[in-house]
Amino acid sequence: MTTQRQELITLINTAYQNVQTAKFTAVRAQLGQFSKDLSAGEDEIKIMLGIRNTLLQADLSLTLKNRIAGLPVEYQVLFETIDPALKKIDSQVIDRYTHYGFVPLKFGSTVKYP
Question: Which residue in 30, 36, 47, 58 has its CB near the most CB atoms, within 10 A?
């Protein structure tokens, strides 16, 4: 998983540096934190779930069907890298992560709760 961790850090840093749009300021801040957490040795699954949640909520003006396609290319590449990895994870493992502030739903969307 070390190669996957390094690839993920590289993709996050690329997306952080290349997307400078004011519209995505909150997303950039979260991506910076995800990169720090990954470098510090945090759980990759937790980080990937957080990234997916962040990217799906990055531009709520888009319809759910076009939510990822309407984002900058760097964000699309990041999402397309982590989404297949998350689909392979057992649903029981994902259930363990629901206490992190969001609940994964069908079709890759999430609902945030306090």
Answer: 58
Burial of 16 (0-12, 13-18, 19+ CB in 10 A): buried
- The number of distinct structural domains making up the chain is 1
What is the distance between the alpha carbons of residues 63 and 66, in angstroms, rounded to a whole number?
Answer: 5
First to last CA, the chain: 31
User: Tens digits of per-residue pLDDT, 2-59?
Assistant: 678 888 999 999 999 999 888 889 999 999 999 999 989 888 888 988 898 889 888 8
Q: Which range of residues forms the domain containing residue 51?
A: 2-112
The model's pTM is 0.74
d(C-alpha 5, C-alpha 26), whole Å: 23
For residue 110, the SS3 value is strand
